[in-house]
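> @MW can you paste both from yesterday?
MW: sure, first one:
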Amino acid sequence: MAISIGRYTMENQQTNQKSLDLDAARVSHDKGYLTTNQGVGVSNTDDSLKAGKRGPTLMEDFIFREKVTHFDHERIPERVVHARGSGAHGYFQVYENLSHLTKAHFLSDPNLITPVFVRFSTVAGFRGSADTVRDVRGFAVKFYTQEGNYDIVGNNMPVFFIQDAIKFPDLIHSLKPEPNNEMPQAASAHDTFWDFVVNTPETMHNVMWLMSPRAVPKSFRMMEGFGINTFRLVNAKGEFKFVKFHWKPVLGVHSLIWDEAQKVAGKDPDFNRRDLWETIAQGQTVEFELGIQVLKPEDEFRFDFDILDPTKLWPEELIPVQKIGKMTLNQNPDNFFAETEQVAFCPANVVPGIDFSNDPLLQGRLFSYLDTQLSRLGGPNFHQLPINRPLPKVNNNQRDGMHRMTIDEGQTSYYPNSLNKGEPHAARAGESHFEHYQEKVDGHVIRERSESFRDHYTQPAMFWNSMSDWERQHIIDAFRFELGKCKHKHTHQKLVDMLGNVDPELAQKVAEGLGATPPANGANPTTASSPALSMANTAKSPKTRKVAVLLESGFDKAQFDALTATLIAAGACFDVVSCKLGPVTAGDNGRVEGNQTYATTASVFYDAVYIPGGSHTEALKGSADVKGFLLDTFNHYKTIGLSGEASALLGLLPSGQKPEPGIVCESAGNMEIYANNFLAALTTGRHFERNVH
């Protein structure tokens, strides 16, 4: 539901002066110690200043603030990260009253409908980059609650690359196109990123996720979302519990494979954006369940990982995810810029009953997001843009600034006052207001990291242990591709040595592909696994699955009708692909409208291909377009359906007449049975047991 809520020429003298100026501006950064912009020496740029090693970040940390402030304002007006996004409106409803956990009003009434706006995004690329690059995906949700706006600002991976926000500029600088040549775009497969990784062991866990299929989601509708950081839920009694937030897609978690993702990027850079838009435009909804992991404060130190460490997840087998509500997306934006581009998320946007932890990544994010909006949206009044406007009345003494949109009446703009009878007043008992949890903080002012954050390999090993065979192969191939793009061989070896601390088999296979030496003393540090981490265990559904039906004149319309009726009844959809647009005549002179051609579409846009029988088989058999369509479908492990005379097209596949998993090729004598078998194969998704080599 929408909320109203270049080159130029110069004279020689000028040109020479310009050259002199440029020479004077050149600075070499290859030697010497780090300093602030004021020339003050810096001995530690890895840890922010805290009150105790596990305590909150201190506002007096001018080194952190200078570093992150400069980073936040490096690019205008595009977002520094998450520049390419796609948004949708919807609503959220909680399943049951959660007032025993939190006093947040929108989580207390199952009958309450809370409007939301969601923005999905890639991280590394510019606004014009492709959707299907290997990257983390942003998953940000703005709840327009009756107590103010609340944002869950997360990703589709539950962990992050770094433990302390002071290192975020370094991470993104390494990931972005290299500054000397502005290449590559929207890719981590280059030297600077991997140089950062091999010199920063804490990145290992997120890197494992980045090399997994999670980094190339099939659809924004089919990826998980995670709040990443640890927060607190606080109830009306002042009692708190630690919490992590999860978004679980109703359709399950599904991905592209790498060859497929690369081809999609070339054929339709807007693949994920288009999928979200068209799904909603067709009247279908996009659904996610909100889950929480809740931990009692007395259990804070119970585990072999630190619950405040953002490079660690809480295994669901140890701390179960409780599904507490559902988010339904059902309306596209009316204007991309006004809504999707101008929406401003911030993890500091919380409501009473939701509070922060001392997670050092979160502590830095609380400052950085707000600071970034000041630059990107032109000043302090971005909250007055319709997409960012809260439902309750904004009532304070903040005035003026760039792009002020309200006309604030009255003589006073301060508090306390008597000229306006003390109004607006500080919230009193019984009036909704935010109170921070009163945590006792006792520690030395220190720039160090807690010893409990120093295990960088146990959870990456657990992630590897949890993967299915096809997910493991995807990870191995991804490491080989990414490092294969790096020119510096020492980076290959250092990465392989790091992987030896995760799993010897993984290190061995990556080393083989890179020509590196496997580590002699590698060892997997744990036997633990978490089945919840594997996409092999996700939900599967035929709903919104898309089938390409290849037709030419002379197809069997009865077979076509039976198969497509089964698809529609199951919530799937199809395109008719032919050599030209317009009506295609069946053998019985019936007609079907062809809405795609081999020039306008490709197999990578579909979950399956189906060809009915009929005399058109001979024409299809001699078509290079059809052969290429079938080969890509086969090599990407997707379902292929051939009924009646179309069974002869099996000869176009590498397996020939040999039956392979996911190829539904049966007599069309009983089309009801055939259609159900095809639907079952389509629902399965990919058939990784197929031999595509």
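MW: second:
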Amino acid sequence: MDKSWSNHGKDTDAKEQQLEEFRVNNVGKKMTTNQGVNVSNDEDSLKSGVRGPTLMEDFHFREKMTHFDHERIPERVVHARGYAAHGEFVLYESMKEYTRAGFLQKAGSKTPVFLRFSNVVGSSGSMDTARDVRGFAVKFYTEEGNYDLVGNNIPIFFIQDAMKFPDLIHAAKPEPNNEMPQAATAHDTFWDFVANNQESAAMVMWLMSDRAIPKNYRMMEGFGVHTFRFINDKGKSRFVKFHWKPVLGVHSLVWDEAQIIAGKDTDFQRRDLWESIEMGNFPEYELGVQILEQEEEFKFDFDILDATKLWPEEIVPVKIIGKLTLNRNVDNVFAETEQVAFHPGNVVPGIDFTNDPLLQGRLFSYIDTQLLRLGGPNFAEIPINRPICPIHNNQRNGFSRQTINVGRVSYHKNSLANNTPSTSTEAKGGFVHYEEKVEGRITRARSKSFDDHFSQARLFWNSMSPPEKQHIINAFSFEVGKVNSQSVRQQVVDMFVHVDKEMATIIAHNVGVNKPTGEQSTVTASSPALSQANTIKLPQTLKVGVLIGNGFDATEVNNVLKTLTKYGVRYSIIGERIGAIESKEGVQLMANETYLTTDSVLFDALYVVGVSADNQAKFNQDILININQAFRHYKPIGVARTGMQFLNESNAKIGPGIVVQTGNADFGEKFVEAIATQRFWNRDIY
């Protein structure tokens, strides 16, 4: 017998024995803590009243979350793949009426910021364009201390209580038996979690939408997710949610395009951010706030403290109060992007927390994670984390201590150093938590006001345009179609029938399970702000791939390139090889890309010029591949007179988004108009 085969058999037998031991030791057994105490509830953290704050005495939550926070070193457990930049925030108008936060007091005031974008699920070495939630974390270096607004590009989240966060991430991460798939939720454990934790319904609708594959960071919305408090200098509290609105509008990739980009340029989104800043095309985001009076807390048919719910903008308008501009790239990715430590508990006077149980858990989890990832309690001394205001306290020593403290006093209160450092009163800038009255029995339960899981999922569906709805159906069909368990596939469609029966029925057909029999939500409302069909459309900073060879018409091409530049549209000359390309008049253009080094998916539009090359057959084929792909991805295509032969040989049809030079005196202007539109969903691509 072959020796290697014999060993393989023994390994298989040993593995089967281990699996059997696991079944015997675990299947059907009751859950316990690591100390052996039986667990009565693994869904909800311990609170003072069902809508009250989470209690630190919850040993089960702390054990579970601490273990989760320390699972991986040194890479972040979540949001591992990230990219960042420096910038500044300028306040449009004083918010003194609402908050005493110093950086929000004077119109025109500037605050330095550091913003880290990230993907949630994938490792640091995964691709940028995966279908995933994106982090949108902003550190404000204010004169009162650092304020961290740690959010995402989606305004809600999968779960309502932080107790379930480890479970969510365990389910979404690669499955532990084979460490696959990377940076993807298209597998059994994630969808098993979704089907059995139906509070995730609304978030999953967002995840299956175009919002989960943003075109780039510059065209991605950001949200604070949770409900926070604004507190003014009179002690009056109001509820607030934070929004970041990209000046260029909210735009996305199409799924096929995102998958191809993952192979063509793993760093597509981070490269776009870096190059844009280097070129002076600074990304801009306006900060908006939704504000509710204290007495409006119970005004709505959803709980404002439920992180799986948004406040529809048509009901609670977004007030735009300032603008963030990213104007400087990092000098060292590790020292800045990787060592930056965000924490939603980093607030300044005038901004405070609510009893949102997901937020309450994050207040513990984030700092606990940094202790492991950054080697101890002194991570605030790392340059990227240092406040710009002076630091004075009695904290000493520990791993990687940078400060050299002098003197012998390191305690409060003291007489040997005249009781310094001393505390500050609220009037002198001291942080004082909002004095909220809290009553209730200590309980491990969830408020009944958190029970509705499908109304806002239905609201999101109702708000989508027909192409967006089709994309959601396609995404479900792909993701759930990758699930091996027929039972899980059936559970998923049985769950999402409550969002939309027709949608769930189509998905069921596509993934090979029975037609769902439940009834959809009766919600008829929609929110136009949720649809990208209603976003801003501008040509600035978009990028055109110019497909060109020798013998082009110099006057025609030069006029088009001038028009693109006039409107802030970038372009890249793509030739048979890098170097000079010569027009029929002897004018030269320099090709900086070839058909081997780039691809239509890396551009927002194509300008087809064509003509001749040394290897004409391959040249023709390369141009046709790019035209066909751009057409299939609904992108605008401009065609020079010399490019018509290529268009005629391609799969592209004259129609929406196809702008031809022939007989078109204002070709450049019309091409720019098409570029600004970005996608032509009414195009027949089949």
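> thanks! The chain has 17 helices and 20 strands.
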